[in-house]
């Protein structure tokens, strides 16, 4: 197998530093009764939103250890937030990640949403086996050569 067919980390050494931000979103769907317990922090395992927020932040920081070819980055800010949807059947998770560097933070934002959603799933599954994680995606990014990209 030739060298060009092997996986490799991209060399970003010649790229200029720039401010970069990525926002990712995802949804966790559940029964209305489970959602109400989640909203009130009354799940059997406790306050799932607080646990998921910390888990998402920690996951963003650990992204290069989880995704093999990601560059280790100095993250300057990670935020994880939640919005309960109007249908009463779920919530949307939003993670925003910022850095000043040579490469973007898309993977960190996506990882934060995924692990936050997994934490909510774990804390709800005992009372609602039909919980679903849905539609994890990059919402927008800015910085670097691409400038601003809005995908919503």
Question: Which SSEs are present, and which pair or pack?
Answer:
Layout: E1 18-29, H1 32-40, H2 48-61, H3 63-66, E2 75-84, E3 90-101, H4 106-124, E4 132-142, E5 148-150
Antiparallel strand pairs: 1-3, 1-4, 2-3, 4-5
Helix pairs in contact: 2-4
What multimeric state do the chains show? Answer: single chain
Q: Kindly report the spatial arrangement of strands forming the biggest sheet.
A: 2-3-1-4-5
Question: Mean pLDDT across all residues, rounded?
Answer: 93
Structural class: alpha+beta
**SSE arrangement, N to C:** EHHHEEHEE
Report the major sheet.
Answer: 5 strands, antiparallel
- Annotated CATH topology: Alpha-Beta Plaits
What's the CATH architecture name? 2-Layer Sandwich
Alpha plus pi helix count: 4
CATH homologous superfamily - what is it?
Molybdopterin cofactor biosynthesis C (MoaC) domain
Rg: 17 Å
CATH class: Alpha Beta
Shape: elongated
End-to-end span in angstroms? Answer: 40 Å
Key features?
152 residues, alpha+beta, Alpha-Beta Plaits, five-stranded antiparallel β-sheet, 32% strand, elongated
Task: Explain the overall architecture.
The protein has 152 residues and is α+β, with helices and mostly antiparallel strands. The chain has a single domain, classed as Alpha-Beta Plaits (2-Layer Sandwich), CATH 3.30.70. 30% of the residues lie in helices and 32% in strands. It has four helices and five strands, in the order E-H-H-H-E-E-H-E-E. It has helices at residues 32-40, 48-61, 63-66, 106-124; strands at residues 18-29, 75-84, 90-101, 132-142, 148-150. A five-stranded antiparallel β-sheet has the order 2-3-1-4-5. Strand 4 and strand 5 form a beta hairpin. The longest helix has 19 residues, at 106-124. The chain is elongated. The termini are far apart.
């Amino acid at each position: 197998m030739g060298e060009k067919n092997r996986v490799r980390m991209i060399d970003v050494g010649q790229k200029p530093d720039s401010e970069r931000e990525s926002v990712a979103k995802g949804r966790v769907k559940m029964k209305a009764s489970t959602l109400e317990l989640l909203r009130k922090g009354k799940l059997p395992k406790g306050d799932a939103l607080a646990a998921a927020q910390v888990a998402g932040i920690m996951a963003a920081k650990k992204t290069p250890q989880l995704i093999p070819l990601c560059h280790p980055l100095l993250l300057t800010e990670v935020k994880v937030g939640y919005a309960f949807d109007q249908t009463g059947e779920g919530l949307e998770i939003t993670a925003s990640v910022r850095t000043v560097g040579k490469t973007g933070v898309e993977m960190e934002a996506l990882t934060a949403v995924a692990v936050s959603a997994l934490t909510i799933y774990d804390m709800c599954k005992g009372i609602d086996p039909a919980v679903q994680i849905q539609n994890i995606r990059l919402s927008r990014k800015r910085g670097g050569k691409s400038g601003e990209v809005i995908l919503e």
